[in-house]
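Input sequence (120 aa), recorded before submission:
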Amino acid sequence: MPSVVGEVRDVDEELLALLDDEYARTILVATREESRSAQALSELCDADDSTIYRRIERLQDRDLLDAHQQLDPNGNHYKTYSARLERVEIEFHDDGVTIDVDRREPAADRFTRLYEEFTG
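Predicted structure, token format:
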């Protein structure tokens, strides 16, 4: 889905800055194939929990990361996170920049879509 054509707006500069952030990139790569908890991401990034939670929040604000509630048999509930980002394409033109962001379809949405296609 195209984000901008023409001048890069502030919101797109924020996206570029987020993708330039080492912690954010590590989180996206680490959660691409497997959901991980904030604690696991903190250990993987060798960063404070608060740093990781700030990156998680920024990634969720940009719809690049999904949260999933996990139920622990001991009664402790926690969240895990999985990347939605599939691909980013930045194209430079004479009149500006185009940023395309491809996101993975959430599993529940994919199931609903497939069911509706099958029954429709």
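Checked by second reader. The beta strands are 2-4, 36-37, 65-71, 77-83, 85-93, 96-103.
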